[in-house]
Amino acid sequence: xxxxxxxxxxxxxxxxxxxxxxxxLAANNAGAYALSIVAARLLAPSAFGELSSLLAVLVVGVVPxxxxxxxxxxxxxxxxxxxxTLLALGLTTSAIVATIGxxxxxxxxxxxxxxxxxxxxxxxxxxxxxTLLGLFHGLLQGSGRFALLAGLMSLExxxxxxxxxxxxxxxxxxxxxxxxxxxxxxxxxFCGWILCGRPRPxxxxxxxxxxLHAAQxxxxxxxxxxxxxxxxxxxxPAGEAGEYALGAIVxxxxxxxxxxxxxxxxxxxxxxxxxxxxxxxxxxxCAALDAFVLLVSFAxxxxxxxxxxxxxYAASTMPVWPFALAGxxxxxxxxxxxxxxAAGDRRVTVLMWTTVVVETVLVTTWxxxxxxQVVTVAACCxxxxxxxxxxxxxxSRK
Length: 398
What we know:
- The protein is mainly α and 398 residues long.
- It is 85% helix and 0% strand.
- It is built from 15 helices and no strands.
- The radius of gyration is 20 Å and the shape is globular.
């Protein structure tokens, strides 16, 4: 009888963890959505396109944080780790990322046609704390402390999105929004350090191979989630790029909606038997959740754009469902990627980067005469990658 009670308690704890993480992620995503809505209504289409592309670059820039989180979560899930040595790893990684951001700031000015280098410098300043935040996420995720992880995620949303909104309202431009993001991010990492027990850095091995492999794969994924938006900003007229940025919100919704699934299953992927058993169910849950987004996009079509961006986009005829399809496919890709990373399969990195190259070449050299062409390329590349990842997974089981 006590065994049955214990099993039931475990199931209840898992349900509670799933609910807490889902609510925290939903709140963060709703906050990001609210930021996009406010920005779309306050800024002209060209200015909104600038801010959206800068925020997309910021998302790409925190990929090392995602790689760091994945490595730390898997290592902690396999066996207990010294938090001090992991903190040293996190601090070193964050310093390197921030330095690279500063070096590449002039490149952003050229690629995104910015009028000033200040927004690009603010991106670099923000990358340091956001990278370190990945360490704190990994410590809590790998040890199964999902309630604290959900709390940290909520604080992250309040700090980053809240800071961005305040900066946008005060400054009225991308520079103000990014300044608010930077300030909020430093507040969040202090909270993360407290929640993880205030560890002190200690000398440790670098684990460069693990972090680099995970970061490369996660970078390719995040590039694919945001690459079409950056390419649209670079190849399309300013007004059409701003319209594309609204459609990209639908992509983000489809990609973000099943995020809690990946957060919860990643530590369990550390065990090979659990991974093979859980993966099909995780993919099914993601597909079921994103089916709703696809149905809504089919039912309402381009009317979603005027709902998101206001009456200024009421005349838009840009199709919305390809954005939802692209995000849905990428949500499946993320789960498959976690499985392969946990298995130490380095072939997945080649597969991810090949897709990035293919999408970039197709858009920049050929299919960029309209927003519909750009998003069609993105959706097809995401679907092909999901299929290739599934085949790679099946072959590994033989």
